[in-house]
Amino acid sequence: MALRTPKKTGSGLATRLAALASFGAATIHFAVTPTHWQEWMPAGVFFLSMAVFQLLWARTVLARPTNPVLAAGMLLNAGAIALWALSRTAGAPFGPHAGEAELVGAADLCALLLEIYVVMGAGWVWYRGTRADPISAFANATVLLGATSIVALASAVGVASGFRHGHHSPTGTGTDHHGGTAQHGDAHHTHAPQPATPSPVVIDPLNTPAAPSPTRSAIPSAEPVHDSHGNHVHDE
Fold first, then answer.
1. For the whole prediction, is pTM greater than 0.70?
2. Which of 22, 28, 89, 126 is the most exposed place for a label (fewest CB within 10 A)?
3. Closest CA to 77 of 99, 61, 98, 89
4. Is 21 part of any domain?
5. What is the pLDDT of residues 55-71, one digit of tens each?
6. For residue 24, what is the enclosing H or E element?
7. What is the number of domains present in the chain?
8. Burial of 132 (0-12, 13-18, 19+ CB in 10 A)
Protein backbone atom coordinates (compact mmCIF):
# COMPACT_ATOMS: atom_id res chain seq x y z
CA MET A 1 0.00 0.00 0.00
CA ALA A 2 1.35 3.43 -0.96
CA LEU A 3 2.19 5.78 1.86
CA ARG A 4 0.50 9.17 1.89
CA THR A 5 3.32 11.66 1.74
CA PRO A 6 1.99 15.08 0.71
CA LYS A 7 4.63 17.33 -0.80
CA LYS A 8 4.47 19.96 1.94
CA THR A 9 5.20 17.55 4.77
CA GLY A 10 8.35 16.31 6.35
CA SER A 11 8.02 12.88 4.76
CA GLY A 12 7.22 14.31 1.36
CA LEU A 13 10.32 16.50 1.52
CA ALA A 14 12.45 13.58 2.68
CA THR A 15 11.17 11.48 -0.23
CA ARG A 16 12.17 14.12 -2.78
CA LEU A 17 15.58 14.58 -1.18
CA ALA A 18 16.23 10.84 -1.17
CA ALA A 19 15.26 10.65 -4.84
CA LEU A 20 17.54 13.59 -5.60
CA ALA A 21 20.46 11.98 -3.79
CA SER A 22 19.85 8.68 -5.57
CA PHE A 23 19.90 10.49 -8.92
CA GLY A 24 23.24 12.11 -8.02
CA ALA A 25 24.77 8.79 -6.96
CA ALA A 26 23.57 7.20 -10.20
CA THR A 27 25.25 9.97 -12.21
CA ILE A 28 28.59 9.33 -10.50
CA HIS A 29 28.32 5.57 -11.00
CA PHE A 30 27.60 6.07 -14.70
CA ALA A 31 30.75 8.21 -14.93
CA VAL A 32 33.07 5.67 -13.27
CA THR A 33 31.66 2.63 -15.11
CA PRO A 34 34.09 2.82 -18.10
CA THR A 35 37.14 2.83 -15.78
CA HIS A 36 35.91 -0.20 -13.84
CA TRP A 37 34.92 -1.91 -17.09
CA GLN A 38 38.48 -1.58 -18.42
CA GLU A 39 39.97 -2.97 -15.21
CA TRP A 40 37.56 -5.90 -14.88
CA MET A 41 34.37 -6.38 -16.88
CA PRO A 42 32.26 -7.82 -13.99
CA ALA A 43 33.10 -4.69 -11.96
CA GLY A 44 31.89 -2.52 -14.84
CA VAL A 45 28.67 -4.51 -15.05
CA PHE A 46 28.17 -4.09 -11.30
CA PHE A 47 28.55 -0.30 -11.37
CA LEU A 48 26.37 0.00 -14.45
CA SER A 49 23.64 -2.05 -12.78
CA MET A 50 23.95 0.05 -9.62
CA ALA A 51 23.61 3.27 -11.60
CA VAL A 52 20.53 2.00 -13.49
CA PHE A 53 18.86 0.84 -10.28
CA GLN A 54 19.49 4.14 -8.49
CA LEU A 55 18.16 6.09 -11.44
CA LEU A 56 14.99 3.99 -11.69
CA TRP A 57 14.51 4.02 -7.92
CA ALA A 58 14.66 7.83 -7.87
CA ARG A 59 11.81 7.95 -10.37
CA THR A 60 9.79 5.19 -8.72
CA VAL A 61 9.96 6.50 -5.16
CA LEU A 62 8.59 9.86 -6.26
CA ALA A 63 5.56 8.20 -7.88
CA ARG A 64 4.91 5.40 -5.37
CA PRO A 65 6.83 5.64 -2.06
CA THR A 66 5.63 2.23 -0.89
CA ASN A 67 7.29 0.18 1.81
CA PRO A 68 8.78 -2.35 -0.69
CA VAL A 69 10.25 0.50 -2.76
CA LEU A 70 11.69 2.20 0.30
CA ALA A 71 13.10 -1.10 1.58
CA ALA A 72 14.75 -1.84 -1.76
CA GLY A 73 16.41 1.58 -1.77
CA MET A 74 17.67 1.22 1.79
CA LEU A 75 19.00 -2.31 1.36
CA LEU A 76 20.81 -1.74 -1.92
CA ASN A 77 22.45 1.51 -0.85
CA ALA A 78 23.39 0.09 2.54
CA GLY A 79 24.99 -2.87 0.77
CA ALA A 80 26.92 -0.50 -1.50
CA ILE A 81 28.16 1.43 1.54
CA ALA A 82 29.29 -1.77 3.26
CA LEU A 83 31.07 -2.99 0.12
CA TRP A 84 32.83 0.36 -0.25
CA ALA A 85 34.06 0.23 3.36
CA LEU A 86 35.34 -3.32 2.86
CA SER A 87 37.17 -2.52 -0.38
CA ARG A 88 38.92 0.50 1.21
CA THR A 89 40.09 -1.40 4.29
CA ALA A 90 40.58 -5.13 3.68
CA GLY A 91 40.21 -5.05 -0.10
CA ALA A 92 37.55 -6.48 -2.39
CA PRO A 93 36.70 -10.13 -1.62
CA PHE A 94 37.08 -11.15 -5.28
CA GLY A 95 38.39 -9.86 -8.59
CA PRO A 96 41.88 -9.15 -9.99
CA HIS A 97 42.78 -6.96 -6.97
CA ALA A 98 41.21 -9.12 -4.27
CA GLY A 99 42.62 -8.48 -0.83
CA GLU A 100 44.26 -5.16 -1.80
CA ALA A 101 42.90 -1.99 -0.22
CA GLU A 102 41.79 0.44 -2.90
CA LEU A 103 42.46 4.17 -3.01
CA VAL A 104 39.90 6.64 -1.68
CA GLY A 105 38.97 9.24 -4.27
CA ALA A 106 36.65 12.21 -4.52
CA ALA A 107 34.17 10.24 -6.64
CA ASP A 108 33.98 7.54 -3.97
CA LEU A 109 33.35 10.01 -1.17
CA CYS A 110 30.70 11.97 -3.08
CA ALA A 111 28.79 8.82 -4.04
CA LEU A 112 29.15 7.51 -0.48
CA LEU A 113 27.63 10.65 1.06
CA LEU A 114 24.72 10.60 -1.39
CA GLU A 115 24.03 6.92 -0.69
CA ILE A 116 24.09 7.59 3.05
CA TYR A 117 21.40 10.20 2.62
CA VAL A 118 19.31 7.84 0.47
CA VAL A 119 19.31 5.37 3.36
CA MET A 120 18.52 8.10 5.89
CA GLY A 121 15.78 9.68 3.78
CA ALA A 122 14.13 6.38 2.88
CA GLY A 123 14.32 5.27 6.51
CA TRP A 124 12.73 8.51 7.67
CA VAL A 125 9.83 8.08 5.23
CA TRP A 126 9.48 4.45 6.28
CA TYR A 127 9.21 5.42 9.93
CA ARG A 128 7.30 8.71 9.65
CA GLY A 129 5.22 8.09 6.56
CA THR A 130 1.84 7.91 8.26
CA ARG A 131 2.67 10.65 10.78
CA ALA A 132 3.87 13.32 8.37
CA ASP A 133 4.05 16.78 9.89
CA PRO A 134 3.19 19.69 7.59
CA ILE A 135 5.87 22.29 6.82
CA SER A 136 5.61 25.75 5.33
CA ALA A 137 6.07 26.36 1.63
CA PHE A 138 9.04 28.67 2.33
CA ALA A 139 10.85 26.03 4.40
CA ASN A 140 10.09 23.40 1.79
CA ALA A 141 11.47 25.53 -1.03
CA THR A 142 14.54 26.58 0.95
CA VAL A 143 15.50 23.04 1.87
CA LEU A 144 14.95 21.80 -1.67
CA LEU A 145 17.06 24.59 -3.15
CA GLY A 146 19.92 23.97 -0.73
CA ALA A 147 19.79 20.22 -1.20
CA THR A 148 19.70 20.55 -4.99
CA SER A 149 22.79 22.75 -4.91
CA ILE A 150 24.67 20.32 -2.67
CA VAL A 151 23.73 17.27 -4.76
CA ALA A 152 24.65 19.08 -7.97
CA LEU A 153 28.05 20.06 -6.56
CA ALA A 154 28.74 16.56 -5.24
CA SER A 155 27.72 15.03 -8.55
CA ALA A 156 29.92 17.40 -10.55
CA VAL A 157 32.95 16.74 -8.35
CA GLY A 158 32.34 13.00 -8.43
CA VAL A 159 31.92 12.87 -12.20
CA ALA A 160 35.04 15.00 -12.82
CA SER A 161 37.09 12.86 -10.44
CA GLY A 162 35.78 9.65 -11.99
CA PHE A 163 36.79 10.77 -15.48
CA ARG A 164 40.24 11.98 -14.38
CA HIS A 165 41.46 9.15 -12.17
CA GLY A 166 41.61 5.43 -12.40
CA HIS A 167 40.46 3.23 -9.57
CA HIS A 168 43.83 1.65 -8.85
CA SER A 169 46.29 3.83 -10.75
CA PRO A 170 46.03 7.61 -10.45
CA THR A 171 46.74 9.42 -13.66
CA GLY A 172 49.92 11.38 -13.95
CA THR A 173 51.86 9.60 -11.26
CA GLY A 174 53.55 7.18 -13.64
CA THR A 175 53.00 4.30 -11.23
CA ASP A 176 51.34 0.98 -11.63
CA HIS A 177 48.97 -0.73 -9.23
CA HIS A 178 51.77 -1.87 -6.93
CA GLY A 179 53.41 1.53 -6.75
CA GLY A 180 56.38 0.82 -9.02
CA THR A 181 57.43 3.26 -11.69
CA ALA A 182 56.43 2.71 -15.28
CA GLN A 183 60.09 2.10 -16.21
CA HIS A 184 60.56 -0.54 -13.52
CA GLY A 185 60.19 -3.37 -16.00
CA ASP A 186 62.94 -2.03 -18.23
CA ALA A 187 65.42 -1.87 -15.38
CA HIS A 188 65.92 -5.63 -15.56
CA HIS A 189 66.96 -5.45 -19.20
CA THR A 190 69.06 -2.29 -19.20
CA HIS A 191 72.64 -2.36 -17.98
CA ALA A 192 74.80 0.61 -17.16
CA PRO A 193 77.61 1.15 -19.71
CA GLN A 194 80.98 -0.18 -18.59
CA PRO A 195 83.60 2.55 -17.99
CA ALA A 196 86.50 2.64 -20.43
CA THR A 197 89.52 0.75 -19.12
CA PRO A 198 92.51 3.09 -18.86
CA SER A 199 95.73 2.00 -20.49
CA PRO A 200 98.22 0.58 -18.00
CA VAL A 201 101.03 2.84 -16.82
CA VAL A 202 104.43 1.17 -16.46
CA ILE A 203 106.31 2.39 -13.39
CA ASP A 204 110.09 1.83 -13.11
CA PRO A 205 110.70 0.64 -9.54
CA LEU A 206 114.38 1.82 -9.66
CA ASN A 207 113.41 5.21 -11.05
CA THR A 208 116.45 4.98 -13.38
CA PRO A 209 116.63 7.93 -15.75
CA ALA A 210 116.80 7.02 -19.35
CA ALA A 211 120.34 7.11 -20.73
CA PRO A 212 120.81 9.87 -23.24
CA SER A 213 121.44 8.72 -26.75
CA PRO A 214 125.13 8.93 -27.69
CA THR A 215 126.04 11.83 -29.87
CA ARG A 216 128.95 11.94 -32.25
CA SER A 217 131.63 14.37 -31.06
CA ALA A 218 132.90 16.85 -33.55
CA ILE A 219 136.40 16.23 -34.96
CA PRO A 220 138.68 19.12 -34.08
CA SER A 221 140.19 20.89 -36.99
CA ALA A 222 143.97 20.49 -37.52
CA GLU A 223 146.12 23.38 -36.32
CA PRO A 224 149.65 24.10 -37.73
CA VAL A 225 152.39 23.08 -35.32
CA HIS A 226 155.33 25.38 -34.70
CA ASP A 227 158.68 23.93 -33.73
CA SER A 228 161.07 25.57 -31.39
CA HIS A 229 163.13 26.96 -34.26
CA GLY A 230 160.27 28.83 -35.79
CA ASN A 231 159.84 26.50 -38.69
CA HIS A 232 156.41 25.55 -39.72
CA VAL A 233 155.54 21.89 -39.72
CA HIS A 234 152.73 21.00 -42.05
CA ASP A 235 150.53 18.06 -41.59
CA GLU A 236 150.95 15.42 -44.13
1. no
2. 89
3. 61
4. yes
5. 999 999 999 999 999 99
6. helix 10-39
7. 1
8. buried
